[in-house]
Amino acid sequence: MTHWFKLDPVDESFLDTAQYRYAFAMDLRSPADEVWGGLTNPQPLTWCRMLTHVAYTSQAPFTVGATRTSEVAWGALQFRERFIAWDDTARRHSFYVEEVNVPLVRAFAEDYQVTPTDTGCRFTWTFTFDANPNYIPSIKLGLPGIRMLLRSFVKDTEKTFGTARVPTLQDL
């Protein structure tokens, strides 16, 4: 049985004020509606290999207040999430984590924004968190691993929806 740790609730302002903030803007060849559909279907983000489970726990239609669960790395990290923003017209939603199985962070939120472009769309995926003061040394040691995990989400997304940008040497 999983032991759950409550995190601090946050609002959308946390996306700009969090202690740690990682934003990835991906120019994708797929249309905005296709990418948005992959983010909002009943089992979203299936293309991300390290996200081994993501499913809504509230009934459709999904909107502000919707809940879902997610697991990273075959359950090593487990999250219970609540959406604080949801706008299908603007193709944007945000959630914060209510509970987690490992108490490394005090607060955690993500934001998804999909914007049409001439070549497909731009998907901006933002991850934000405040470290639990008791685990700051662990977080600092783990930052390279966190960045590697987030980059894997980006690479899997670009592979699934096609990248509309020219790779640079740094990408290889």
DSSP helical segment count = 3
Rg over C-alpha atoms, rounded to the nearest angstrom: 16 Å
Biggest sheet: strands, sense, closure? 8 strands, antiparallel
Q: What number of structural domains do the residues give? A: 1
The second-level CATH architecture is 2-Layer Sandwich
Instruction: Tell me the fraction of residues in β-strands, as a range.
Output: 35-45%
Give the name of the CATH superfamily: START domain
Helices and strands, in order, run as EHEHEEEEEEH
Percentage of residues in helical conformation: 10-25%
- Silhouette: globular
Q: Could you please describe the fold and organization of this structure?
A:
With 172 residues, the protein is an alpha+beta fold. The protein has a single domain (5-165), classed as START domain (Alpha-D-Glucose-1,6-Bisphosphate, Chain A, domain 4). The chain is built from three helices and eight strands; from the N terminus they run βαβαββββββα. Strands 1, 2, 3, 4, 5, 6, 7 and 8 form an eight-stranded antiparallel sheet that branches. The protein is globular. The termini are far apart. 23% of the residues are buried. The mean pLDDT is 93.
Topology:
Blueprint: E1 5-6, H1 14-17, E2 20-28, H2 32-40, E3 51-56, E4 67-72, E5 77-87, E6 92-100, E7 105-117, E8 120-131, H3 136-161
